[in-house]
Amino acid sequence: MDLLLKGKRALITGSTSGIGWATARELAAEGVHVILNGRDPTRLTSAIERIQSEFADAMVDGVAADLSSAAGCQQLLEAAGEIDILVNNLGIFEPKPFEQIVDEDWLRFFEVNVMSGVRLSRHHLALMKARNWGRIVFISSESGICPPAEMVHYGMSKSAQLSVSRALAETCTGTNVTVNSVLPGPTKTEGVGEFFATLARDAGQTLEQAEHDFFKFARPTSLLQRFIEPAEVAAMVAYVCSPRSAATNGAALHVEGGVVRSLI
Ligand code: NAD
């Protein structure tokens, strides 16, 4: 299916690796001019080159900016310029017992996971409405609807994104601008892979055994019973960024392998 995305311009936050990079790659493959973002210029250059080496004609730029502050978001807004598509992908996670999550942790999770998307959307939503076309996608998580006891602050930030996303969609009545969120489940990104490799090593297991046991005992409701690939999340994001998805607005789209036992 041609997603009709050729010539659009997209900004994807936190896109030097993981779901963000996979999304940038997928959009670049569809002929979108993609703007990547991360904090480290070296990693940013490498992320851009990995896309260009695969797609010779790809239009790829990057902006190094730390989005944990208003100043960092402003720096990105100024450098990236006008866009048709904004993917608020940036998100951090950290398992920590509730009793040990101090105020600074709560505020950091709110700044990075919620306010980065709020600040960028506040700027771009008005411009998209003025041009009467645009796509904003928040990468939330299954944790946004199934709050995790092992990282309460992360769950809070992911639920907040869902609320913001739906409310922004409500402001787009009658326009060709959509705002949706995507809810990935356990996805095999570099960070998750390294975390898991350590767990497996400590338990004296192979990666395959550890993955099998994780889904059997810790995520028994997963219908997929394996980690999701970043490209499998990116495929949904690319669709919802496309003109094809015009009738999908204000939605929370599940890409969580069926972990969430829910009819809708
Ligand atoms: P990741 O850790 O693999 O990638 C994070 C990216 O963000 C990197 O490019 C990093 O450089 C960048 N980054 C980190 N802090 C930054 C900052 N302050 N400013 C700018 N860039 C910064 O991430 P991921 O696992 O692919 O997660 C992407 C999104 O998907 C997040 O919102 C996460 O909550 C969500 N998610 C992930 C999973 C999973 O299993 N991986 C599951 C559900 C939801």
Automatic annotation (TrEMBL):
It comes from the Bacteria. Residues 8-188 form the Ketoreductase domain. InterPro entries: KR_dom, NAD(P)-bd_dom_sf, SDR, SDR_fam. Belongs to the short-chain dehydrogenases/reductases (SDR) family. This is SDR family oxidoreductase.
